[in-house]
Specification:
about 170 residues; mainly alpha; 8 helices; elongated; disordered N terminus; disordered C terminus
């Protein structure tokens, strides 16, 4: 169901909700659901929203799983927090703090990875075989705090180009 929008701010809020809904259907039903939602938006007098929806490319299975895991915003934010804490610990030079932060970040990466694999498993029996790819992608994404909002709102579709080495961005 798409609510009529009167301002750009409302369009963004509704788009976030609608985009997130694309990850509550199976990956195989993504295109049909996107088309259905775009048609509903257009019928509701929201041509801009319809265009935004149609522009959301179908993600790979691994990316679908990761974005689906973003339904738990707290989980995603905990990952970014753990990554930032590791960067700070490394910058401080405190060996013990770095070891603790590394373990915390590893736990956060594994938690998001598990959530993503679980989301995919509901629709794909071989989801477990994608765990290494998903873990690598989660690790890369965790270094890009600027992508947190698109991950949580369901509009994230690709990894950033030229991933930075280490945690320099957090120092």
């Amino acid at each position: 169901h798409v609510e009529p929008c009167r301002t750009l701010w409302q369009v963004v809020v509704v788009t976030d909700h609608v985009a997130r809904a694309l990850f509550r259907v199976s990956p195989g039903a993504y295109v049909d659901e996107r088309t259905r939602l775009a048609k509903a938006a257009k019928a509701a007098g929201q041509p801009h929203l319809a265009k935004v929806l149609q522009a959301l490319k179908k993600p790979t299975l691994a990316m679908w799983a990761i974005v689906a895991a973003g339904d738990d915003a707290d989980l995603v934010h905990a990952l970014f927090d753990a990554t930032a804490a590791l960067g700070e610990a490394q910058a401080s030079g405190d060996r013990e703090a770095t070891l603790r932060a590394t373990a915390d970040r590893r736990t956060a990466v594994e938690a998001v990875t598990a959530a993503a694999v679980d989301a995919l498993r509901r629709h794909e029996p071989a989801a477990e075989t994608r765990r290494p790819e998903i873990r690598t992608m989660v690790d890369q994404l965790s270094r890009h705090t600027d992508l947190a909002s698109t991950w949580v709102d369901g509009t994230l579709r690709e990894l950033p180009e030229g991933d930075a080495f280490g945690f320099a961005a957090f120092t």
